[in-house]
Amino acid sequence: MDILIICLLLLATVVLLLIELFIVPGISIAGILAGGCAIFVNYYAFTYLGIVAGIITLIITIIVCVGSIIFFMRSKTLDRISLKQNITSQIDRTAEMRIKIGDIGITTTRLALIGYAKINDEIVEVKSTGELLNEHTCIRVVRIVDGTIMVEKAN
To answer: How many domains is the chain built from?
Structure first.
């Protein structure tokens, strides 16, 4: 019965480890549970089966975890679950093409560095040159860099 418990916990460790590494990356519940299962399976083996069985379980745990990661990476499973589409959509930048340096407009949202403004009857995303601008503040375009419209408060 003890060996069955160890095998089931070891299987749970491997499954949760693979889920953590390849499906839900980052520190998540699967990673915490995988670590908990690995620690408990070794604790259980040392406590109930003795030192020799505990060392053997520890070695088997390391070999099975590393081996399953290598096997999973070499298998075609990652290719089957990976995203294969390219994003081909583009942002509509026609409004930014009609705006020139020196144009005057008014903010439609609060500019906590980035927000929206109405310039030449076009609502576009703008970036403040540094100061916080409240909604309905008169602004002036000072720069256009890579489609980003930089504005400052108009005097």
So the answer is: 2
